[in-house]
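In response to reviewer comment 3 from the previous cycle, which asked for concrete evidence that the modeling workflow produces usable outputs, we include below a single protein chain processed end to end. The sequence was submitted unchanged, and the resulting structure tokens are shown without manual editing.
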Amino acid sequence: MKKTVMTGISSTLILVIGGMGSLMAQDDIPTGREILDHMTEVLTPVNSMGTMRQTITTSTGQKRTFELESFSANKGEKSLMRYQKPASVRGQAFLMLNNADDIWTFFPRTNRVRKLASHAKKQKVQGSDFTYEDMGSGDSWKREYTPENLGEEKYEGEKCWKLQCTAVPEEEPSYSKIMIWIQQGSYHPLRIDYYEEGELLKSLYMSDIREVDGLPTAHSMVMRNHQEHTETSMEMISVTYNWEPPDGFFSERNLKR
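The workflow returned the following structure tokens.
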């Protein structure tokens, strides 16, 4: 009888401890908001400067390749991009302030700086599959979307958190929903799906992630447009986060440099 009682107590203890372990494991699961905050910290360093190679592939398979400089400050709130190659586009530049709410462009051929209308943030940049907003939204996702952690899911063999971000109607972001697969160790996204009214518009695939100045950084990004059957790849040639912009760098005058 004693043995039976002791066995029962032991079994109860095992169940209790096991239950406590389950509760502890649940407590370790980050919320959607925590995941989104971690991810934006990784993707929006205080300042950055880099050079990229951009290749646009049309629906017929034709390719156009560009090389450009990219600069950002204040966690992506300010950004400037300037084309270097080929010669036909050299010097073309665009400046984005207030997370791409304000956009200016410069074309050497006309030697004019032009401010774009507010809705231009949804337009494609240089015919690519990236919009101005994709390039310069910074950490605005934190206020524009409500995040939900859908749990752990493997992507390309990596343990990821699957994050669903639903648009906050008052903010009027470009996408109604965004699905993100975020690498658990680095909190760097590996894939982002962009939706509009329940329809998948395009997907961004990120790979070749290396540490740069203490931050995980994707050196290969491919935006695939599922509607138009086009894609744009961005290959990182060089990048640093140990850069301070000179006074007046993010200005209309500097676009003409």
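The longest helix spans residues 2-27. We consider this sufficient to address the reviewer's concern, and the full set will be provided in the supplementary archive.
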